Amino acid sequence: MSPFSAYMDALCGTLADESARKRFRKEALTLSKLNHPNIGTIFDFDTQDGVDFLAMEYIQGVTLDKKVSAAALEQKEVIAIGEQMAAALQEAHDQGVIHRDLKPSNVAVTPKGVVKVLDFGLATLLHPIGAHDATLSATADGRTLTATSRSRCSSRAR
Predict the structure, then answer these.
(1) Residues forming a β-bridge with 98
(2) Which own/partner pairs from 77-83 qualify as long-range (CB within 8 Å, at least 24 positions apart)?
(3) 115 Cβ partners below 8 Å, 6+ apart?
(4) Where do the DSSP E strands lie in 32-96?
(5) Which of 57, 110, 129, 137 could cross-link 61 (Cys pair, CB 3.0–4.6 Å)?
């Protein structure tokens, strides 16, 4: 079963629950803003004739959990997969998106070895995607961390 088929199976019958519908809509909206070769592309999420659907790119291959359980991976392949996953997450983080559910079943690997990170349904948005002039503040353990976007930093340095 391809990751695409598994994903579509997950949609069937589960979106009658409003919280599931909201989760998939959030994922679709989040992913539709991300554009990276190692992130599964979502084209649309909608309801037609009472049927919810998520239109995403077709990804031929298997999920990483199935790939690993089928056979041991060579070191070279592990490194290639790790680098691609890191690139996908870096792009998401650069856009203010934290995946929060990264696991082997949420990573697809094509027959050519291209990695696609999937399932951003639990993702957290640190700031609206495309909001490059925002300042992010967070408090952790009583300390305040403030981050300013690169565009604001470069304009202040002038």
Answers:
(1) 124
(2) 77/113, 80/113, 80/115, 81/107, 81/109, 81/113, 81/115
(3) 38, 64, 80, 81, 84, 85, 88, 107, 108, 109
(4) 42-48, 51-56, 62-63
(5) 110
Q: How far apart are CA 97 and CA 123, in angstroms?
A: 6
**DSSP helix/strand/coil, 115:** strand
**β pairing state of 42-48 and 97-98:** unpaired
The model's pTM: 0.66
pLDDT in tens, the chain (158 residues): 445 444 444 444 456 677 877 777 776 777 677 889 999 988 877 878 877 777 888 999 999 999 999 999 999 999 999 999 999 999 999 988 889 899 999 999 999 999 999 987 777 878 755 544 444 444 344 444 444 444 444 444 44
Instruction: State both tokens at 93.
Output: 């983080």
